[in-house]
């Protein structure tokens, strides 16, 4: 593993040989949303941390404590080294987000959300860290448990900042978060061209009616959800 600078880039060419998701446009959208809301003085939990880019951005923006979690041992090792090189203190834990416990002012998450065909046809599965994007037929294999668990991770008035693609159904995320007692809304969007994984799956998505013929752009959404109670740092109404 080689990290070349103390500042992780936020849009990086995919490196299929590396089993870690390097920062992309979704990462950047989450960081921009986090910065626009402010995180100074907050205790932050970054779920699905990957390279640690979001956790590092939170620490640099003045979070008092940052914890990061990932199910991939390689991502955990990468994020620990990235934090050390960036000169910020981050507790990086190896584990499934569903089993993480604790209460935080701010929870961030850029989960796997790419709709994934059931059979493993090689052409639909480009090389790279598939654990970072494969998310079941509807793209919600990680989003659904995340939305169900996040109310148990927030202090009163605490905030979730979540990013995913339109193809994983933002209305389903909003409904699930509201069902958990949070206020929730889409606060930012970004339209980007398909990357390698969606490009590989575009034909399949057209066949199942998930994608209009020949459309090759996706809309990323940033969702902010706020727990009931008095606002903590970076809290406020969604
Ligand atoms: C899209 S990447 C995001 C990486 C980074 N946060 C970013 O925005 O660049 C998703 C990450 O989620 C991790 N992951 C997948 N399922 C998980 C789970 N159930 N619990 C914790 N981490 C998980 C993957 O290993 C991967 O590192």
Automatic annotation (TrEMBL):
Q: Which UniProt keywords apply?
A: Methyltransferase, S-adenosyl-L-methionine, Transferase
Q: Which SUPFAM superfamilies match?
A: S-adenosyl-L-methionine-dependent methyltransferases
Q: Fetch the InterPro entries from UniProt.
A: Euk-Arch_PrmC-MTase, PrmC-related, SAM-dependent_MTases_sf, Small_mtfrase_dom
Which domain of life does this protein belong to? Bacteria
Which residues does the UniProt record annotate as the domain Methyltransferase small?
27-114
Q: What is this protein called?
A: Methyltransferase small domain-containing protein
Species annotation: Gordonia terrae NBRC 100016
